[in-house]
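Please review the protein record below. Tell me whether the encoded fold seems credible here:
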Amino acid sequence: MKLFEEKTMKTENIYNGSVVQLQVDDVTLPNGKASKREIIKHPGAVSVIPLTKDNKIIFVEQYRKPLEKSLIEIPAGKMERGESPVVTAVRELEEETGYTTKDLSFVTSFYTSPGFADELLYIYITDQLEALETPVKGDHDEFVKLLELTLDEAKQYVEEERIHDAKTNYAILYLHAMGLN
C-alpha cells in the first residue's frame, strides 16, 4: 500500500442526482484500521474570467440556496458528460452573460473540496468578448444579474463578503498578480 493510501473495501451508492452522486466507502486505513468515507462524485466544472475591452470583469450575481444568500461570482457551470472544459467554458459564458469568445486561455484547475468531493474546477480567461446577437437560453432554474466591476471594486466586494467563493477569489488574486489595471 502506498503511503497514506486508503484501500476501498466496499462502496454503497446512496444518491444519484443530476448534479452529484453520494457514496459511502468502507476503507482500510494505512494503519490497518477500518473507517468510512462519505464521498460526493461530481462531473467537474468550469469557470471563465471575462474581461471587457476597458478591463472590467463581468460577474454574475445569483442566489445560492445552500448559503441562503446571493453571491457575486465569475460565470461557471457543471461539465456535461463527454464535454471538454473549453466547450463548457464557452457554453457557460454564453448562457450566463450573453457573450461568447473564440479566444480562451487556460489559467489553472483545482479540486474544490478534496476532503469529501472529487470535483475538479477549471478556470479560463478571455479578453476577446463578442456580444451574442441572439441570447442563449440558460438553465430554466437559474436566475442571474450581470455586473461589470473594476478589479478594485471586486476587491472591495471580497472585503464585504459579497464575493465569497473560492473560484472567484482565485480569479481576483490572479488578476491582481497579473497587474490588471
